[in-house]
Design a protein that fits this description.
Helix content is 19%, strand content 33%. Strand 2 and strand 3 (57-63) form a beta hairpin. The longest helix has 11 residues, at 89-99. It has helices at residues 18-26, 89-99, 139-143, 178-188, and strands at 35-41, 45-51, 57-63, 68-73, 81-87, 108-111, 116-122, 146-152, 155-158, 171-177. By secondary structure, it is α+β, with helices and mostly antiparallel strands. It has a five-stranded antiparallel sheet. The protein has a five-stranded antiparallel sheet with strand order 6-7-10-8-9. It has two domains: 18-99; 108-188, Alpha-Beta Plaits. InterPro entries: AAE_transporter, KhtT, KhtT-like_N, RCK_C, RCK_C_sf. One of its GO terms (biological process) is potassium ion transport. This is TrkA domain protein.
Length: 191
């Protein structure tokens, strides 16, 4: 039996067994959305508790060394741990990435509240821009989007200048509005 550190968890009142919750749903009782809380664990890290809309309980302990402990609790007894996984920092990051909402483009890097997106656009060997200077694309002037970096094999070239020579196999990191980035992709994909 493990010792609990930090304040006791509070769980919503109401039906606790899955079949009781299912019966209550049929009566038109509205289920609430997911709830998240955090508890500092001195000397260890922070515990994050998630209660889903179906009153299922998950927790993550974020250890100070970057490791994570992911635990899932039984539906019929929210204090009984059904599964506990120890994850390294990189494993936790990979899982977190898989849990993020999918976007329309698998190469989408980020979407901000400002309406800007960053996208990875590969430059094919048959592109008309292969071997030409970045400035020749007139990308910023035509689309308003900017190439902020170029990934070439194992190198990253930040802030490429207009005299930077593009090569097939490069991946261009482009930032702008969704429309601007889509227009930039159309220009860069010309053969």
């Amino acid at each position: 039996m493990s010792e609990r550190i930090g304040p006791a968890r509070s769980y919503p009142s109401g039906p606790s067994r899955p079949e009781e919750r299912e019966r209550e749903r049929g009566k038109g009782i509205r289920m609430t959305g997911p709830r998240m809380s955090s508890t500092p664990l001195p000397g260890i890290g922070v515990q994050y508790d998630l209660t889903t809309r179906d009153d299922r309980h998950l927790s993550v302990v974020a250890h100070r060394d970057g490791a994570r402990t992911l635990s899932a609790y039984r539906g019929d007894d929210p204090d009984a741990c059904a599964l506990s996984l120890q994850l390294t920092g990189p494993e936790a990051a990979t899982l977190a990435e898989a849990l993020l909402p999918t976007h329309k483009s698998p190469s989408l890097l980020h979407n901000t509240d400002l309406g800007l997106v960053a996208d990875r656009i590969p430059l094919s060997a048959t592109s008309m821009w292969n071997g030409r200077l970045l400035g020749e694309t007139r990308l910023r002037a035509e689309t308003g989007a900017s190439i902020v970096a170029v990934l070439r094999r194992t190198d990253a070239i930040p802030s490429p200048r207009p005299d930077f020579r593009l090569a097939g196999g490069d991946t261009l990191i482009v930032i702008g509005t969704r429309e601007g980035v889509d227009a930039a992709a159309a220009i860069l994909e010309q053969e």
